[in-house]
Each structure stands twice: as C-alpha cells, then as structure tokens.
Design goal:
The chain is an alpha/beta fold. It has helices spanning 13-28, 45-55, 64-67, 83-92, 107-119, 134-145, 176-179, 184-200, 309-312, 322-339, 347-366; strands spanning 4-9, 35-41, 59-61, 73-76, 96-100, 124-127, 151-159, 203-211, 216-217, 227-228, 234-241, 246-252, 261-268, 271-276, 282-287, 298-301, 370-371, 378-379. The protein has a ten-stranded mixed sheet. A six-stranded parallel sheet has the order 3-2-1-4-5-6, with helices on both faces. A hairpin with a 4-residue loop joins strand 11 (234-241) and strand 12. Helix 1 (13-28) packs across helix 10.
Length: 388
C-alpha cells in the first residue's frame, strides 16, 4: 500500500493523542496504508519540537502553511477558531483532512468547510472519538439489526466539571469570538448528538434550553476586571428523530464530580440499551420476553466479537482506553482514503450537528420549537413547549 505522509497541526492535549495514534495505528491494524508522521506543527516552537521528538515525527514547524507541500493528509487539532483557514487551505491543496470537533465556530463556518470538501476529490472526516468505542458501535449494530425493534426513546448526556468551580478563570472557550456561540454544546454536546443520530437518525424537531450559570469569571491576571462569559454552561433539548423516536439530550461543563460522563439510555420496542462512558468497556442490554425471574439488564463486557477490540487484545474484558479510540479513528480514516470515500461521520454531518446546536440556542432565546434543524431551521409556535 502507498504510504501517507501526515502533518499534525496542534500539539496540545488532543494533538498529542493524535500523534500517539499515528505511531500506533499500523502496529495495531495490518490492513491499512502506512501512516507516516512527517511534520508536527504548533505555534509554540518549544512545544512543537518537544512533542515531535517524543512522538517520533520526522520534523516540526510553527508554520502550518509550509506543511501543505510536504504531506498527503492533515490532522487539524487546534482550537476551533483556527479550523476554517487551515481546513480550506488544506482542501484547496488537495490534502485529505481529519478535523477535530466542533468544526469551526458556527454552522456557517462548518458549512463553508463542508462545501469545500464536497468540491474536492479528497477524503475527509471528523474526530468524534466516542463513536469509535467498540461498545457504542455494538449498540448501533444491535439497533440496525432490528432485534430490539425500532428505537422509541433516547436519553443522552455528556457532563464534565472543568468549569463547575465558579472561581475557575476565563479562557478562550468562553469567548464567543473564539469558541463561537456554543459553549457546553460545542465542547461536549457534539459528541452525544453524534451518538444519538447514529442510533435514532437525524433530528427533525427540537425544543432547546440553554443557561450560563456563571455570568462572569476572573481573568487570573492581577488588576483586570472579570470578563463576561459569552456562551452556555449547560444546554438541553427535547427532540424528535427521523425514526419517530423522541428523546432528551443534555450537555454540561459545570456538573460537579462528572469527570468524563458521556452516556445514553435507549429504549426500543423490544428492549433497551444503556452505555456509560466512564465504564466504556461495558454495555447494559435488556431483552423483552425473558421469564419474569430472569428479567433485568445484563452486562455485556467487551470481547473480540465486538468491533476492533481483537486487534488490540486477545483476551476479553481487559478494556480499551481513550487513546485507543483515536487509533481506531485513524484506522478508519486510512481505510477511507484507500477506498476513496469519506470517514463516517464526515464534514457534512458535522455541519448538520452544528446546525442542531445553533437551533438549541435559538430555541432557548425565542421560546420556540425548531423544525428541521439540520437543514437550516424554521421557528414553530412559541406556545409549543414539547416536541410532539
């Protein structure tokens, strides 16, 4: 297979994990093109040099533009306010693009990037890490098989506590000019919305509510006044999906004690499925019709029969971690490039999720139900308080 030279743009938290995936992917999976860690880019020269050395990159730079002439594919792992310029340039240069979420600062930016990708002949994909979890994929396979009947209701959440302390300082994530209108929705909501869509289909209507619990935060610099927080700490929605299922989705960055709590409860016509991200190597499964003495959710533990697990480990229930999910994601991206298709989810789906997030915020402001949020929404009657 042809080698694929990669530039990793961004050497922070998520960038480092992508770098580890670049080193691991061909050792774990034997069926993909070889990923070559060619160049690591970060505006912090010392960080770029250090991470490039630790992660085995051939070189490093502070100029992402210079990278485009040296590689075949680009991983965009920088803050969302930098996505548009980098993604458009990379796509225009004919480079395959794997972009972290949220894509851009708005649905408009995500749409512009998706349109550029559609015009290009290259592969694109988006970093929806938790969709790669083998037990989430197993849940999707169960739903697709029809063994539990059609989805009836979905309750999903992604809650963390990185801003639960009201004394936590202001950061770029709270600045709408940099992070966009979406706060908790952008950081966290994208993940659980993507899972909801995989299980229940596109969102066709919603009622949203958003709240900024801590309106101001100190900058952390002596003598400076507190800054206003410009996006939401918490958001939720009641929704109807294309399959006819209804549900609720919640995102919070102020949930004390929730370090990385993503999960869902899915009720189907003939049973149910539950997943909790802090126990990501398990799935709870309920099948209707068992004798009364045996009824209840059963714990299904990860095994070689579940997607991708056997590539890492020969023994059941030993478990995978977050970094492994990025390796799975990169493997999918490499296979997509080889097949001449996009990774699922791609930039078009990211644009749809961005529209859903903006619809939640619009619904909250206007007190109105939103119809067809993924297509560019219309406002329903403000008297409607639930999705029907």
């Amino acid at each position: 297979m042809t080698d694929l030279r990669f530039a990793l743009i961004g050497a922070g938290f998520i960038g480092r994990i992508h770098g580890l995936a670049l080193q691991a992917v061909n050792h774990v999976f034997a069926d993909a093109p070889r990923a070559v860690a060619t160049l690591l880019v970060d505006q912090d020269a010392a960080l770029a040099e250090r991470q490039a050395t630790q992660l085995g990159f051939a070189g490093w730079s502070t100029d992402w533009r210079a990278a485009l002439d040296r590689v075949d594919a680009v991983i965009i792992a920088v803050p969302s306010f930098m996505h548009r310029e980098i993604a458009l340039a990379a796509l225009d240069a004919g480079k395959h693009v794997l972009c972290e979420k949220p894509v851009g600062r708005s649905a408009a930016e995500a749409g512009e990037i998706a349109a550029a990708a559609a015009r290009s002949a290259v592969t694109n994909g988006v970093g929806f890490t938790y969709l790669r979890a083998p037990m989430v994929r197993h849940a999707a396979a169960i739903v697709a098989s029809g063994v539990l009947g059609k989805p009836v209701s979905f309750r999903g959440w992604h809650a963390e506590d990185y801003l639960a302390d009201p004394e936590a300082p202001f950061s770029w994530r709270l600045d709408a000019g940099l992070a966009g209108r979406s706060g908790a929705l952008g950081d966290l909501g994208w993940h659980i919305i993507s899972i909801a869509r995989q299980l229940c289909g596109p969102v066709v209507a919603l009622n949203g509510l958003a709240e900024t619990r801590y309106a101001k935060r100190a900058t952390g610099r002596p003598g400076e006044p507190p800054r206003s927080v410009e996006n939401e700490d918490w958001a939720g929605m009641l929704t109807r999906f294309e399959t006819g299922a209804v549900g609720s989705i919640e995102a919070s960055r102020i949930a004390h004690g929730r370090k990385m709590d993503i999960g869902f409860d899915l009720t189907c016509e003939q049973g149910g499925i539950a997943f909790h991200g802090e126990r990501a190597n398990e799935l709870a499964l309920y099948r209707h019709g068992e004798e009364a003495a045996q009824q209840g959710f059963k714990t299904v533990r990860i095994d070689g029969a579940h997607p991708d697990y056997a590539a890492f480990l020969p023994a059941p229930a030993h478990g995978l971690g977050f970094n492994d999910l990025k390796t799975i994601e990169l493997h999918g991206f490499l296979l997509a490039i080889a097949a001449g298709r996009n990774l699922d989810p791609d930039l078009d789906e990211a644009c749809r999720i961005a529209r859903v997030c903006e619809a939640v915020l619009d619904s909250s402001v206007r007190g109105a139900r939103i119809e067809q949020p993924e297509a560019g929404h219309s406002i329903g009657s403000h008297k409607e308080t639930v999705v029907a």
